[in-house]
Amino acid sequence: MSSDPERPIQPQVVHGPHHRTPRRLIAMGMRPERVLALVIAAVLIISMTSYDVAGIRNMQRNPITGVDYVPVVEYVSARRLPGQKVLVALPPPAYLAFDSTDNLIFLSSPITRKRAERYTRLTKDGNYVDYWTGVDSIVDTAGLCRLIQSTPDLLILVDTPRLIADWAFKGSMATVINGMTYVRYSAPGGGMVRGVSPVASRTVRAEELCAMALTGNLDENATDSDGTGTTDSETEPDVAEPTAVT
Fold this sequence. Notes:
Blueprint: H1 32-61, H2 70-79, E1 86-88, H3 91-98, E2 104-107, H4 114-119, E3 120-122, E4 128-130, E5 137-138, H5 141-150, E6 155-159, H6 160-163, H7 172-180, E7 181-186, E8 191-196, H8 204-214
Parallel strand pairs: 1-2, 1-6, 2-5
Antiparallel strand pairs: 3-4, 6-8, 7-8
Helix pairs in contact: 2-3, 5-7, 5-8, 7-8
């Protein structure tokens, strides 16, 4: 069979593998504000981690900050009668032990001292309460005297360091506590449970201070040795109020 010289010869098309044109990789630059945010976040994480680790180590070395109130609140929790009022210098441990704020009262300090300013708050109805638990707060010697005189089964949870500290009870409050109550239980470190003394056992000076306080003739902040209310342990050094409990 002869070929037709006028018939165009069709070129053969060879189909090989399909090759795509390589894409150019475009480097995406990170914005400066994003970099700064990441750096700040990293610094905060490192700082918080370091702080937590240091705090854990400190708790391991010194598990209790200040006076340990656990023994005294446990003592009271095991013996407290229904409805019995408890006046305490540190309400949080008592609240945790009693599982309630019922009949719990906070012994602050005279209202003009830093302890009362820091750990009490004034409610809308004009009452001072504990900043953390919200229980009523004693902020003057008159209130302390009224409570002791009207509540013969009152239990008072205090500690030696606060009784001798001028930012806490040193002065008329300490003298009234020492002169109108007695120690029922004491724990290592200075924590104690005190009960109300019979009238015949109360000191003359404590009674005088109460009379002055109830008539508005008492200087709440007097802590000197002129008979206005220093404690028997006045020579012991003052300690700073712990920042954590508690």
